[in-house]
Amino acid sequence: MIRKIDLKNGISLEYLDRGEGEAILLLHGLGSTKADWDLQVEPFSKEFRIIAPDLRGHGNSTKPEKKEDYGVSQCAEDMKLLLDDLGISKCMLVGFSMGGAVAFEMAIRYRSLISKLVIVNTAPDFNALGQMGEQMIKERTELLRTQGMNAMAEKVAEGMFPEEEQKHLRDAFYERASVNDLEAYYNSFITLMDWGIGEKVKTIDIPALVVASDLDYTPVELKESYTAKMKNARLKVIKNSRHGVTMDQPKQFNEALLKFFRS
Q: Which of 252, 165, 168, 254 has the alpha carbon at shortest distance from 214?
């Protein structure tokens, strides 16, 4: 069921709430919505309660006007308030891409809320991606300024789902990404690229599964590096998958996560 909630900090979130049992909080990627999890909701909700929100600045949730009202820290606070309002004292947390950054932030700030942690195709330090990060900022800023949100959505969709047989995935992602408010997207992106937890990653002791796609634009070696720093984490590499693993390899992805959830 799709619901709407007004948080104590003034942010309104739309979220999916489906199933019963232990709660799983699913956090989507930059410029997307809870629809990132469409292929997970049915199998996961057979055993668990699925909570999948649109993060601030995205989908049908509040889109603040000021840049300072965006950022990973603010999104993490939103999720804490959402869980509080829903009466959920502990959950399993899954974050994909930007949602993975929010999940890392929550693991540092709200450790007691999380029983298990899944990190999907992301990094704990977007502010330390070096030349790759600088190039991303330059290219996306220029594309947004000169061609707008439709061009950005097309570029991201084609990069995630380049194969001809993935046209339905490419079209679906483009459809939801292209309707983003440009300023909300830019503010979400630029604050994400300024975020990182640094050496705090070594303090994360929650049982964790790090999921990496073998064809993702961020290399498997990066995920291997930070997985090794976490005290209770292991890495799962999904074959023949790019950044959007929740969509391009749902069978492999779902099997890996359900095994972890049940363990």
A: 252
